[in-house]
Specification:
single chain, 4-stranded mixed beta sheet, 4 strands, globular
Length: about 220
């Protein structure tokens, strides 16, 4: 039995190609905040205004990692909004999960990432988020209730706590069976190979020591006797 937790952030460029690959694997979605608040971007990059320029250099590498090369870097350079923070997007995806399960979460997570990386929209803006929800198959009224609910925020915060428990420092990250880490946006073939290795490690192991002394025998059953 393999259980995979996929830790990610809506603003994480390397999570964009990784999510596309992980569509072929059954996972549990986990939130990880790269920039929970505006001051986080300022602390990491000197100022929130400077963050955008440096983050776009990361997009270049992520676009090379992406099989479909979907990143619209030129378009993002022309936008006039500051680089988004994580929380509104993570809450939106988690609320979608509350309403429509893991499949609903994944659809909204991917839609938010495409909105940022391809369409160059500000996914911190609630108007942008609400437009995406309304254009999806998710019941908007139920989603709004979940988005505003303290219980949904608690679910997101629980993911953050779990990431700390695993001592994660970045995303994308896969935690397999609570103890194996697959770090970074790895190629799908390598991920599958790693999962197969873990599956073999996790399989029940029976060690057989054949007795050589008559006093070390066992009670056995053969042919129902």
């Amino acid at each position: 039995m393999i259980a995979i937790e996929f830790f990610h952030d809506v603003i994480c460029s390397f999570c964009f190609p990784m999510s596309y690959r992980m569509r072929q694997v059954q996972i549990v979605h986990r939130s990880f905040p790269l920039a929970k608040e505006p001051q986080d971007l300022a602390q990491m990059f000197g100022s929130r205004e400077q963050a955008k320029s440096e983050i776009l250099s990361h997009w270049v590498h992520a676009n090379q990692n992406d099989e479909l090369h979907r990143f619209n870097i030129k378009g993002m350079k022309k936008t006039d909004f500051l680089f988004p923070t994580s929380m509104n997007g993570l809450l939106a995806a988690k609320a979608a999960g509350v309403v429509a399960g893991e499949a609903g979460y994944w659809d909204i997570f991917d839609a938010l990432q495409e909105e940022l990386f391809v369409k160059n929209q500000n996914i911190e803006d609630l108007a942008v988020i609400e437009r995406l929800i309304k254009s999806s198959s998710i019941d908007f009224t139920k989603w709004q209730e979940a988005f505003d609910s303290p219980e949904t925020l608690a679910l997101v915060e629980a993911d953050f706590h779990l990431a700390d428990t695993y001592q994660l420092k970045g995303v994308p990250a896969l935690i397999v069976n609570g103890k194996y880490l697959i770090n970074g946006a790895q190629p799908l073939e390598q991920i599958i190979q790693a999962l197969q290795t873990i599956k073999e490690k996790e399989a029940p192991v029976i060690e057989i020591l054949e007795p050589t002394d008559a006093n070390n025998r066992a009670c056995t059953i053969e042919n129902r006797k």
